[in-house]
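Hi P.,

Sorry for the delay on this. The queue was packed all week, but I finally got your sequence through. Input first:
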Amino acid sequence: MNVDEEYKREVLEPARAAGDQPPEDLRVRYRLREPLRAAEVTAQVKQVRQCWRRARGQLKYRKLIDRLEAEHRQLAPLFSAAERGDLGPLTARLRGGRERTERRRAEARSRLVDAAGSLRLVAPAEVAVIARSGGVTGAELEALAKQDGIEIREPDALATSPPAQGYPKARESLDVLGHRHLADFLFGPRLTGPMRVLDGFAAPGVRLDAETVAAVAAEWARRPRDTSSTHAGTVLAVLRQAGEPDALIRYDVVERLRERYRQRASERALLRHAIEGLGVEPGDARRLVFAVLREAAPAGGLAGRLRALLDAGEAHAAALLAERAGLPAGELTGDAGEAQVLAAEARQRLAAALRLREAAESEVDPDRAWQLLTEALHLVRDLPGADERLRRLPPRPVPRLRAVPDGRGARLSWAESPSTGGELRYLVVRRRDRAPHDPADGDTVPAGRTGAHDDRPPANVPLFYAVFARRGEATTAPATAGPVFVRPEPAAVELTTGDGVVTGRWQCPAEAARVVVVRDGVTVPADREGFRDRVSNGVTHHYRIAAVYLGPDGREVETPGVRISATPNAPPDPIYEFQVRPDPADSEQVIITFTPPRRGTAEFVLLREPPPWPRSALLPVAELRQVSKRLPAEPTVRGTAVRTGSSGWLLAVTVAGTTAAIGACHRHIDLPPPGGLLAERRGPAVHLGFDWPKGITEVELTYRIGSASPERTAISRADYDAQGGLRLPAPEDEPVEVSVAAAGLIGDARMTGPAVALTVPERLLVTYDVATAGPPWRRTLTVTAASARPVEIGRLVLVLREGRVMPQRPGDGETVGSWTEVSLPCELTVPLPRRAGPYWLRCFAEDEDIELSDPPVRRLQIKG
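Then the structure:
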């Protein structure tokens, strides 16, 4: 058995039986073997997907393959990771597959229990629907049903018409006589146990036959004639007409159950009525209720079956059923029954479909034949031979195929087949030395709708390609292209520059005879793996590196080549020292000053750890870039402004071409200083405020009051926000020095950044008093002032304000006294102002470091 057939038997067929549900376990779906290995997984997935493409040509697998491909697109990242050697995502998905399978099986089991209901019976068709929609196989569902005590069986066929035409009259007579059913009429009190009605009538202690009916008739004949005997005669007449009393009894029981069902009785109520009300044996009662509930339609019978077949598109089967049932094939008359009308419709559909099939068989154009057969199958889905003929109708071939080399592969493009009917697929096949004859004659190349790319074809050999259009199981003649010679260029070409030297390295294709290197029109000596060329510094040199192959005739064929440029430079000069200071205009960058190097370009990079290279060392720029972060720099009049962004080691490097010279290195702490520091005295305390540094959660506050020792404390952002700033208790007559710096952990060490500082000068408290003196015609005002220590007030003013409001500033009233360079203690006198009403007097000092303390309010108010 080949691989495809084995995969179909073990994977695709069970999936089809489960309603075209792909297996959740990816081990089964892709046939993966434990333990997983990355290379084996990649190869196996590729092989399985090729099997999908081949199997999709069969209609029965098409829907399943489409679902497999759709889900594979979602799984592609797992297999891409596996191809790179990372099996972690695939392993995690495999563990989840078992859980999803169990969950799906549990859901299907729940639906099965719901369908079985209290009868614990379910029809095979219902099992198939649940299996198909639930993604499990029929065998799995049957096992689950057995575990739950659910019986799977076809509903018993129940008669849709009475065995005797007079049954409706007999039913009315039974109701008048007060009998539950015909058996109760026949046996009366002798019917003491449950009766069976499905597989022939049977009940304990009684026997149903013609003699029983005759005995009952004789008993009624002996009774006086009245309405009861008349109704009994009607029932007996129907029994004789039926011929088989057990069939009439069964129909009578079924009709009574149908009547209850039409009255919307539940499943349990129907079962209880059958057992307790009608006296049916429990097993037969379950089967009867199950059959009544599963009846397709009130019409039932032959007409119902014909309609079901026609609705499903199976007109051929409907015509055969009508023929076996003996329905006439002539024209319909006015009294034709429903079954005859349906049979006529089936025959008409079948006749039209057969004409279309015959026309398709004689049609030369396959597209026209495909259209005719499609119309025939639309009329009659089960038309014999049409589906198979349709699958074998090939489309028109692809008009042309173009194949060109593309790097290490070949790119193919073609025009689509002119055929428009059906779903077309394209198969691309590659063969060496000659064109492929059929899809199996060569190696398959993954193809799209109008193009394909052959990733790894054999190199330097004549390759021929063919594209086939496929519809169903039929394939067209090939469109071919070739010969194509794939001659890869040297791979991984890399040039390294030095002091007057350019060195080249590459990977030479195994099929190439040698490699040619040309610099600016001059051939450079080279071997299969590289070259070393001495050239001038500071000049850009252009190289073409091409592979040379031997053609079929033994002549050399040179590829177009890989073009690459390099500029060698003299070794750069290192920067031996530089200075770093904060940028006052931008807290997120620093100003660096240094002496520019004579050769090379200065750059500054940031490292997390101290540089592993000694100063003045030369190394490739690529090596430096792997472990460092290049910092953006902008020349300014103050120096080079560099935005660091984080803490680390600030390293100066000089770059020339692909070489970097290591220079000086400084430890850099990226803790920006707070901005806008403000301080204000408020009585016996100093209030501080500042702009909190971005990204900082803690600052360090250092302060000194007067000549005391400095004190330090850490302030968190939460404390600062809760207090609306910082408050330092401090005497007003003592100066306060304050500095604030950002703080944080750099590694395991606590570090502080640049600090901002200011000094809050002391404030001198001066007390004063205002008093009146002298006779009434020459009264004066006397102002006395004093302080704890000698002090001089630059300017002292006495302000008068009429009314009831005290002056709050010098401009709030009339200045009645002004003194400059007042030394304390002092006593100052002015004439008492004469005003008609009351007024206020208050002193103000214009010196910012002096605070006047007012006397009691009653001393400042003059009655006038």
